Amino acid sequence: MTIVLQQLVLGVLIGGLYGLAAAGLSLIFGVMKVLNVAHGELIMLGGYGAFWLFALSGLDPFAALVVVIPVALVGGAILYWGLFGWVVRYHEETRIKNSLLIGFGLGLALHAAAVQLWTADERSITTAYAGSVLDVGGVSLPVVRLASLVIAFVLIGGLHLLLNHWRWGRAIRATADDWEAALMTGIDVRRAYLIAFAIGTALAGAAGTLVSVGYSISPSIGLEWTLKALIVVVLAGLGSMLGTFAGGLILGVAEACSAMVFGGPYREVVGLVIFLVVLVARPQGLFAK
Amino acid sequence: MLHVDNVEASYGPFLALSGATLEVRVGEIVALLGPNGAGKTTLIRCIAGLLRPRAGGIRWDGASLANVAAHRIVERGIAVVPEGRRLFATMTVEEHLDLGAFAPHAHAGRVQRLEEVYTIFPVLRERRGQLVRALSGGQQQMVAIGRALMAAPRLLILDEPSLGLAPRIVESILGVLGEINRRGVSILLVEQNVQAALVLAHRGYILESGRIVGEGTGAALMDDPHVKRAYLGPLALRH
What we know:
The complex is a heterodimer of chains A (289) and B (239).
Chain A: H1 2-32, H2 39-57, H3 61-82, H4 92-118, E1 133-136, E2 139-142, H5 143-165, H6 167-177, H7 179-184, H8 189-214, H9 222-236, H10 241-262, H11 269-281
Antiparallel strand pairs in A: 1-2
Helix pairs in contact in A: 1-5, 1-8, 1-9, 1-10, 2-3, 2-4, 2-8, 2-9, 3-8, 5-6, 5-8, 6-8, 9-10, 9-11, 10-11
Chain B: E1 2-11, E2 14-24, E3 29-33, H1 40-48, E4 55-60, E5 63-64, H2 70-75, E6 78-81, H3 93-100, H4 104-107, H5 110-120, H6 122-126, H7 137-149, E7 155-159, H8 167-182, E8 186-190, H9 194-200, E9 203-208, E10 211-217, H10 218-223, H11 225-232
Parallel strand pairs in B: 3-8, 3-9, 6-7, 7-8
Antiparallel strand pairs in B: 1-2, 1-4, 4-5, 9-10
Helix pairs in contact in B: 3-7
């Protein structure tokens, strides 16, 4: 029983990061109708950013968020100006296709650059408190992963508040819903795209930082994280960030269950099954508004 | 204030407007009438900056709007109530009105303007916290008009505001347009309900197959044989 509970708890802990990884992808896709398949590579870069800060200056990875998030925000804006901003002038179907090409190209380039910079080895940030564990009735909670879950929730909650109460947050929601109506309301939808893309990238950076401290990173984790994020986006549906977070938790727990029932190698399969089942049974997602 | 001069516009190979010319003067209510597919909505999309004309010009306060982005056209004082209302599904009444004042020029006086909108549409004050999908069609139309008014327009353009509404509701919506006009907002009204529109409007234009085929005061158009036959008489086609 304790073992089952332990696995479920670990599932929830990784699920929070799935949710955070998916939130950025969901925001960008929902607003711009652009699928950034390099999202996982941006997560990877965020992880290496925190890794570098730790290795070079000893900065605590959680404190590194204060650096990584603003840098990723600016990086996202640059990516928008340089690459993704070009496709939003096309019709929505053309947008998706072009964004896929751009995303795959960007993903390959970032992967290659990461191998050059940091080699292909797996890395992880080992802080002094890395091994600390909270024991709750026989179930052990790794402190680092617990903190990551809390931070992921706070970031998504913050995004939720921004989208509901910030002027531009509402403009972003309006643009996601009906960009022409947003234009007629006086909203500069290109700027809404830019802000959404920058925030989405910042979330990827934050997710990467948390991955590098609780788990491990290597240049090739990008595709895997893009896939997880995509599964969560399909599972949760667009339009609700809290729903996306919940979707992440569901995927984490489902993976844990799948690993327990069918064995470790089948951990990943359940996500793909969920992906297909949701697409067939409820294509708008569980929490879509 | 608004001059549309020989505008041609197309969707791909299909020519939707082939030389439309009209004018809205300060303080006027102008009706734009015509059957479905005549190009009325296309013309409005051109004025709003959502579609660029292939030829011809649109001037506002004497300056061309050819290279002005759509959101900047709102800043210059033209607000559109689009066909089908185009409300934001996940937003409340008050969020719509607040968003209507998004443009920088409209932001300053938004509190006072919100009061004004609530005075014009008291029911919206009662329903301010509700999602728009919980509202009736007429109330949704009020939200769409209110959202446009929050942008502090000098010209309000309405595309088929009575579409799908009960006659009694149409009457009250059109009545409100008169009141908005008396508050100093010029109005360009696209309307299927020709009789009501011509009673309300100072002047009107008839758009058919992409070109203006008639114009005049509301009274003159109502007496026009073509208008009578096609739009008003007992044998008029119901569009």
